[in-house]
Amino acid sequence: MPDGDGDGELEARLVEQETFEPPEEFVEQANVSDESIYEEFEADWPRSWTRAADLLDWETEYSQVLDESNGPFYEWFADGTLNASYNCVDRHVENGDKNRVAIKWEGEHGETRTYTYQDLYREVNEFAATLRDLGVEEDDVVTLYMPMVPELPIAMLACARIGAPHSVVFAGFSADALATRMNSADSRYLVTCDGYYRRGDPLDHLAKANEGLEGVDHGVDATVVVDRLGDDGFGHDLKGNQHDWDDLLDDHQGDRIDPVERDAEDMLFLMYTSGTTGEPKGVKHTTGGYLAYTTWTSHAVLDLKPEDTYWCSADIGWITGHSYIVYGPLSLGTTTVMYEGTPDYPERDRLWEIVEKYAVDVFYTAPTAIRAFMKWGSAYPKRHDLSSLRLLGTVGEPINPRAWKWYYKHIGDEACPIVDTWWQTETGGMMVTTLPGVGTMKPGSAGPPLPGIDAKVVDTAGEEVEAGRAGYLTVEKPWPGMLRTLYQNDERFVQEYWQEYSDPDADEWVYFPEDGAKIDDDGYITILGRVDDVLNVSGHRLGTMEIESAIVGVEGVAEAAVVGGEHEVKGEAVYAYVILEDGYEGTEEMREAIIEGVEDGIGPIARPEQVIFTPELPKTRSGKIMRRLLEEIANGEELGDTTTLRNPDIVTEIQGKVQR
Ligand code: WT7
Description:
- It is globular and about 75 Å long.
- The chain is of the alpha/beta class.
- The chain is 30% helix and 20% strand.
- Residues 546-624 form the AMP-binding enzyme C-terminal domain.
């Protein structure tokens, strides 16, 4: 949002202020409040990571914290064994907290469901028994294509209990996207849902799941379908190997399954994410390192305590939900809130209504949401008592200072610290952010790297850049939550993340997250955004190649180039430049066919903001599309150098076609 917007909502005092200190009241109660933690981690690295591992219950203690012998294939706590479901469920039941609420779920229509840790224990066991009965064995990948229903975390934990890695596919993704991911993971089991509500209407999710199943190349052994819609459902008959969740659970009432002993390095789950190529990347996370890391960061950064009610408004279909709705909070024995619907249904105060209703202590959301709240105005949060809030967080994209300050004032009432957390699907958990009980906050800058995280901003040669200069973010030392590889593709793992700045001959490995950044004199890092062909639309990561291939799949399309243009609320929006085959015209029908092609190929989140038909794309003499130029055109910016173009005339023609 450009500066100047919503000025009436922030006094000059706040607009001017550049640094903020956490309130004393917060510091006094914080899980971590001593700045010596940074030195402690450094002095005793990597042994300092036992702090994270000590937050878990291990079945067998590990003898070595980090095995660096085969970089970048690092191993953490390698000879230790544990079970993630035991850590997130059983141990709280055993410790006398069986009646504490684990999950508070609220449906879009206001229905609620409450699961105590004992309830969770019962259902996770029963579903684990169900999965076994369906034939799922240890190390089989189970795909979970589910919206925000409590059965999703239950299924995740049931998988973890029997050592079957889950692969959650975001419910908003298309049938094609589901098929691609099931094929890639060779996954023979699917758990899905009949449908869910969006802005009052039931959506037919099972139709999409069934269509996806048709695209799976191998046999599918079983599908389990949760009945969310009841009488509002679409009346699908379940086919041969499709089963109703409730029926299966009835058959397994009272069953108990011992949590299997998993090696720390055993896969906990796979999560597909977008990269530069058209093929999504299957990021592999492990049982010990990932769980230790998400538990530790939930403790140190989110400041979660067992008695807290905590709400992360993300979808579990993304890594944020895995790490900070399910694994981190439940491992700490906290109450985690899940909400099915959108923030503006039935009205634009829905989230604040939920915060008030459950007296939420800690709230974690995305800058894109905050920009929307700002646009809607402060009258909506004002309707509610938000005084239960103690800490606020953001994730997913850079937050501009104005949105930060609006959040600080209108949601936090200037009494809650804000953590702006930089991390990625691949990092497993938060990497760069202030510790809320320790550090000064600087709106717009995520903060220093967390203790034990060796993040630097470097130039193309790998040398650290001066304060204030733009460079590339890198991470030199490994950390427990890091991805271990890309599923069945070690080579691509090395290529994607460890090529740029490493020196393999010297056995020196540097992780490259593909983000631009700058650093200030205090070591605070400001993230400038992706430097690869990946877009960040409303905090969601989308590969331009994936969108392009969906567009090129539409009849009549010859070539497409997709770039991100600035967007007030979404951060970035998809701009598609399209060349049609001879005999086709850039009509409204064609535009709709292209949008439909993208929705079918990926999902509505990738829907182009604008489709611009053009007879040619600006190309260099060597034939490369000049994407920078296409971005400048999308943003209505002054154009940079066009002298290297083979077809400079096309630029003005395209400029005239972009709607402003
Ligand atoms: C990309 C990772 C981390 C879970 C959600 C997204 C961007 C993430 C921030 C932040 C600026 C951020 C980066 C990163 N990003 N957090 N606090 N400030 N940018 O996970 O889909 O893997 O996307 O999101 O560009 O590389 P993801």
